[in-house]
Amino acid sequence: MSDIALSIPRARAAQSFSATRVLRLIQVTCIFIIALVIVSPLLLLVVASLKDDRFQILADMGSFRAFWVSIPTLSNYAEVGHLSGELAFGRYLINSLIILITTVCSGLIVNSMAGFVLAWGSLRGRAVILSIVIALYVIPQESIIMPLVIMVSRAGMADTFAVQIVPWVASPLYIFLFYQFFSQLPKELLEAAEIDGASFFRAYRSIFLPLSLPALATVSILMGIETWNQYLWPILVTQTDYARPIAVAIATFFGQDSIYWDRAMAASVLMMIPILGLYLAFQRWFVSSFIGSAVKG
Hints:
This protein is an all-alpha fold. The protein contains 14 helices and no strands. Helix 8 packs antiparallel against helix 11. The radius of gyration is 26 Å and the shape is flat.
């Protein structure tokens, strides 16, 4: 009788353990499938960039051979890495890096200062200004792009680096992100700095800015991705190779009678590397910032 009484809980425990293993197996399988869907285009892109025959790339598409290269070569990268000529993607890549670094560095300074003033400044009507800033964010960029084109053309900024940097330095979204972060820091920090004789700007630069590394990392990555992927605006304001970014240059491959897939793939990999490096450089603070935002709700 006692053996039967003990066997029932054991059977239930075994069933529960088996159900847990099945559930975990389903979870692992789902995660593997999702990861495969996300990674496979990137893997295909890298593998295709190492193939020297554009017709072979097209022939391999739609089969598992698209993910394998028997004789890898870097000749495509050598062809598109020139600084001048028809395939001057090295030049376009440098242009994009100049635009990216200048926009992100300038944006961090301008947006963080604006967010700090809105959070702790003595400016009158801060609540109204903050409401206007938030309202500006909902306006689609495309709706103001044509008036903006006319303005920069009349200002003589067309086909320059400045025209791809200046209009996008200040952003309502990033001002609001910095405002949120600074407003959550203790006000006693600012009061202590003022008692020690520090100016408002000194308190921002020496106390609040060093404490805002997660916010700086988040804005750097988001702003970097937005700047790097700009396509419509550079098309409208650049006419020559002088300041043309690589995103626009890659599109020229697909306007030709014959598409050189091998070179286009190599140029796409080159375009992907800098923004991936930016994310890896700020990954720790970026993740902690998102986790902190989620916890604070």
